[in-house]
Each structure stands twice: as structure tokens, then as C-alpha cells.
Specification:
Elements lengths: L1 H20 L2 H7 L1 H8 L9 H7 E4 L6 H22 L7 E2 L22 E2 L5 H9 L13 E4 L4 H4 L9
Parallel strand pairs: 1-4
Antiparallel strand pairs: 2-3
Helix pairs in contact: 2-3
């Protein structure tokens, strides 16, 4: 995973250096929404709860089973959650993503250098949930819409006995 991220960061830094030759890096950082059509092809409609729910294709248990009822309830709760995200009823908290540790690897605090602490919050929006599920926060740029298949695992305790949190 680290190797993948390192390569992506390297490529993005080189791309940014190339943009700086023409002064485009500053324009993109000052107005990213205006420059988004340059990098995302097609219609830039916003991802909302209805769009995301239309992509989810649940694989339910047979009709009439208690598992089916539980699965339908979970999908209803997921729909309510996405709609509450759009209404702004769900909020998150900020968490530090950088720490001031020394380079010796022992975890002792280095008091010489005081880097700026960066705080980040989870993206609590339909776009953020779509990014978490698919890796992309925007609508598909291809003509064919992708589907998100939801499987319900009722036998997780038999496959993984150390599993502590389970809905069934």
C-alpha cells in the first residue's frame, strides 16, 4: 500500500511541477471547482443520495425469511443515513493526521521542530460515501453506470470466529 501511495504522490508532484511551468498550478489551487471540467470528462452532476442508492444492487435472501427482513431493514437504514447526510443532520469530528515525532523511530517527541498540525474530518456526504465504496467521488465518466453489489454475510461467525461485531 505504501508503495502505491508513494508512486501516486511522486506522479502527482511531477504533474504539479509541469503545471507550474505555465502557472496553471496556482489557478487550479485557487479555484478547483472552475478547473474540474478540465480533468473530469462529461456531465458533472453532483452525486446525491438517490443516485448512490440507485447504484446499490443488494443480493437478498429468499422472500419470507427472517434474513430477508433484516437485509431490507439494513438497506432502509442506509437510505435514511444517506438522506440525513444530505440534510446536514450527521456531523463528524476533527482528528489530527500529523504528529510531532522524532526521526529516531522511538516515538519520543521532538521539541526542536514544530510542524503545523493538520486536522481532517471524514467526508460526511453522499459523495464521500461513494468515494469510500468505489474509490471515486464523482459520477462515472463512462457511458455505462457501474453498480455496487451489496452482499449480506450471515455466516461470518463460522468463517471468522474472532469476529466481535455482527448484525445477525
Amino acid at each position: 500500500m505504501v508503495s502505491i501511495w508513494s508512486k501516486r504522490i511522486l506522479y502527482l508532484k511531477e504533474f504539479k511541477e509541469g503545471l507550474q511551468v505555465y502557472g496553471l498550478a496556482n489557478i487550479i489551487s485557487q479555484s478547483p471547482q472552475a478547473c474540474k471540467p478540465l480533468f473530469v470528462k462529461g456531465n458533472l452532476e453532483k452525486v446525491d443520495a438517490n443516485y448512490l442508492l440507485a447504484l446499490v444492487q443488494p443480493v437478498y435472501s429468499p422472500h419470507g425469511s427472517s434474513s430477508r427482513k433484516l437485509e431490507e431493514d439494513i438497506m432502509d437504514y442506509f437510505q435514511d443515513f444517506l438522506l440525513s447526510l444530505e440534510d446536514g443532520q450527521v456531523t463528524g469530528y476533527s482528528a489530527a493526521v500529523t504528529w510531532n515525532f522524532s526521526e529516531d523511530g522511538k516515538g519520543s517527541v521532538n521539541t526542536d521542530a514544530q510542524p503545523e498540525e493538520v486536522f481532517a474530518t471524514a467526508d460526511l456526504s453522499a459523495e464521500g460515501v461513494m468515494g469510500w465504496l468505489t474509490g471515486e467521488k464523482h459520477r462515472s465518466i463512462s457511458d455505462k453506470e457501474s453498480k455496487i453489489t451489496a452482499y449480506f454475510d450471515h455466516d461470518c461467525k463460522t468463517r471468522n470466529p474472532s469476529h466481535k461485531i455482527c448484525l445477525t
